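Recap for those who missed Tuesday's class. We walked through two folding examples back to back. For each one, the amino acid string is listed first and its predicted structure tokens come directly after. Nothing is annotated here on purpose, so try labeling regions yourself before you check the end of the notes.
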Amino acid sequence: MQHPRLALVPGEPAGIGPELVARLAQKPREDCTLVAFADPDTLTTAAATLGLPLRILPEDARAHAAGDLCVHVVRNAAPVHFGRTDPRNAQPVVDALQTAARACLDGAFDGLVTGPVHKATINAGGIAYTGTTELLATQAGTDVVMMLANETVRVALATTHLPLRAVADAIQPASLERTLRILHEAMRGPFGIDAPRIAVLGLNPHAGEDGHMGREEIDVITPVLEVLRAQGMDLRGPLPADTAFLPAKLREVDAVLAMYHDQGLPVLKFSGFEHAVNLTLGLPYPRVAVDHGTALDIAGKGIADPSSLFAAVATCARLARSEIAA
């Protein structure tokens, strides 16, 4: 089977991304070839801070030994001081993301792994930025769905970063149907599940309790599920969120669709935050991100846990191999 080639973007240079990449480089990978889109000086400094070897190689080379890392050079605009962001480096962060993603769209790479970015700093740098998921979706011209996953559960989101007051209005038949179609196709495609079983949560407590606690389940969610079930999808729900994550329930499904961010993600993070990853479904290539922030308070101290980045690379490599095989 072909060895997938993955683009890797460390993210905010003053955060923990560069040191996590330096740790990742210490073990040559057997499941993929990695190329970091970053400033090599920042990566070298991060490795030195940790007391780790790092040998920067051209992007078309092959990493063989511990500490080897192939790099597509994207220079920072200002000196990097770990723990202190600089808005002058906002444009290089966005450039690295867009360049790596464009390389995936052009077929030069089979998948994209991204580290944490600092949204406030990017906006302070004069770039209107709501998130990497939105950036990649706009570039690719596709609708996408955010899904977080660990070894226990996969949780996709019908809405993402909205105030709770706005969630109910955002759950509309067209958008919900689109989200379920993207989720279903991703489970069948890259994840290789022929007949995916998807649990769909209700919005209200007790899934509305027959309309006594809200009518979104009756007026919006159930009609969409009925249409898609008639087309062959295995959709369970709408289910009360307080019992849908019981272990016995999770064993019966392949993914869960939560109606809003904090309905599903606290359960996922409690069940295994360190190994959780963030996937963008619906892009023409696999994209997997770490499930943590820039952690500026510990950047450069050598104590950041690399588990999520390791899991993100392993997940992206597995999905990319599945797409290559298809």
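Example two. Treat it independently of the first, because the proteins are unrelated.
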Amino acid sequence: MKEMWDNRYSNEDYAYGILPNDFFKYAIDKYKLTGKILLPAEGEGRNAVYAAKKGLNVTAFDISNEGKKKALKLAEKENVKINYEIGNLFDLDLINEQFDSAIFIYAHLPPSILSNYHKKIAELVKPNGYIILEGFSTGHLELRKQNPQVGGPDKLEMLFSKDTIKRDFPDFDIIELEDVETELNEGKFHIGTAKVIRFVGKKQHTTQPKLH
């Protein structure tokens, strides 16, 4: 998988463009996110750079070295700083940090690791912090067959549903959760009508029981 992403990101053009994802931009602006933000599977940095321009302290990671190169190049062009790490989530030092929010944008992973990955990142978010997600829903598969240019996994088990989101983020109050049809126009690889899950969750504030 690393080789596939390195190949995709090795071209001079940005595979998904340089503008932030619409839902990413909407969520940062609507919920007035501040502080430290974690961006998994960040690719070429379009969302990380937008978050940094909004004053957030950005940590991003991915498995693609080529993605990191493009992200840092874009950050330099836009005169912002981002922290970008390469590797598997469970091997990175950032798993010992805490974040005010984490945003997944089309972070589709093998089903064997997806739930653990979601749950680990949920642990890294502080109480009252946000998890935000947009990804292709199970209903997207038919649209992808009709128009492969719209992108997304071709395996049902790698797609999201409302139920899988509720399963993976049980400690978050649901602020928004919908399965919607949208028009994508992101670079060369997300073009056309798609079905997506959009989720905004706020981490419940739990307190330790008092000892008597």
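Answers for example two:
The chain has seven helices and seven strands.
The first strand starts at residue 36 and ends at 39.
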